[in-house]
């Protein structure tokens, strides 16, 4: 029992840099593997590379490696005990290389690595897909995202978050975005677990039903989706 208490007391805190929606970056050489959020690999104090393995459930909407290769980069312009500011870019394609998406964002965080903090992100993306006669169709997406991290202890972080695509929400005259919350908890030095609930817009499902001339009138504007994630950092 004494050994267990000592181990828990020395356990590595759950840091702001371990969340993809903050401006903080990981320490040099630090690595983080996420199943359903961005996995991150620090190159230096300011620079880290990232990729989505199975599909993102947070701010980042890349589909993951089952759909095709994807990679990103984040650079911290400024970070410290009071907050951080970073810029990022990412690129994704399908395995047939017929469609690509290029995105960029700016993220500002107010708050320290293990303290309550607010995070704001603004971004834009361009998607292009090959259609008939070798032509390409292009689509622009926008992203405004905000989250608040509540840190009751060094091992636990609650997140309340929301994001919207203002451009496509205006075009479709409906909400295109997400709202949700989750509980994140660190276990030991490396293992972390997340459980939460997200309200997801159904515009993509409605569009898919409309394409096959199916009835989409019964589909609600948003529906709740349980979320879970396991991630490791070392």
- Sheet with the most strands: spatial strand order: 1-2-3-4-5-6-7-8-9-10-11-12
**Mass-distribution shape:** globular
Uncertain parts: 1-9
Helix content: 10-25%
What class would the helix/strand composition place it in? mainly beta
Provide the β-strand percentage band. over 45%
Largest sheet: 12 strands, antiparallel, barrel
| Series of secondary-structure elements, N-terminal to C-terminal | HEEEEEEEEEHEEHE
> So how many helices?
3
N-C termini distance: 25 Å
Structural commentary:
The chain has helices at about 1-10, 165-170, 205-210, and strands spanning about 30-35, 40, 45-50, 70-80, 85-95, 100-110, 115-130, 135-155, 155-165, 175-185, 190-200, 220-234. With about 230 residues, it is mainly beta. The chain has a twelve-stranded antiparallel beta barrel with strand order 1-2-3-4-5-6-7-8-9-10-11-12. The longest helix has 9 residues, at about 205-210. The protein is globular. The two termini are about 25 Å apart. Mean pLDDT is about 90; it is low at about 1-10.
Write the layout of secondary structure elements.
Layout lengths: L1 H8 L21 E4 L3 E5 L4 E6 L17 E11 L2 E11 L5 E12 L6 E14 L5 E18 L2 E9 L1 H7 L4 E11 L3 E11 L1 H9 L10 E12 L1
Antiparallel strand pairs: 1-2, 1-12, 2-3, 3-4, 4-5, 5-6, 6-7, 7-8, 8-9, 9-10, 10-11, 11-12
């Amino acid at each position: 029992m004494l050994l267990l208490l000592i181990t828990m007391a020395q356990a590595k805190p759950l840091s702001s840099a371990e969340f993809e929606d903050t401006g903080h970056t990981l320490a040099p050489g630090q690595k983080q593997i996420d199943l359903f959020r961005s996995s991150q690999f620090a190159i230096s104090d300011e620079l880290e590379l990232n990729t989505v393995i199975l599909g993102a459930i947070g701010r980042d909407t890349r589909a993951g490696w089952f759909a095709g290769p994807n990679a990103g980069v984040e650079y911290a312009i400024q970070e410290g005990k009071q907050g951080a500011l970073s810029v990022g870019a990412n690129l994704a394609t399908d395995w047939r290389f017929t469609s690509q998406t290029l995105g960029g964002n700016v993220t500002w965080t107010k708050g320290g690595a293990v303290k309550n903090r607010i995070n704001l992100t603004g971004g834009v993306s361009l998607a292009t897909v090959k259609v008939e006669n070798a032509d390409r169709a292009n689509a622009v997406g926008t992203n405004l995202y905000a989250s608040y991290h509540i840190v009751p202890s060094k091992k636990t972080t609650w997140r309340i978050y929301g994001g919207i695509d203002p451009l496509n929400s205006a075009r479709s005259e409906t909400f295109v975005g997400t709202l949700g919350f989750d509980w994140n908890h660190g276990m030991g030095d490396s293992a972390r677990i997340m459980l939460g609930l997200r309200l997801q817009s159904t515009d993509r499902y409605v569009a898919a039903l409309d394409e096959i001339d199916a009835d989409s009138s019964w589909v609600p504007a948003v529906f709740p989706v349980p979320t879970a994630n396991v991630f490791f950092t070392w």
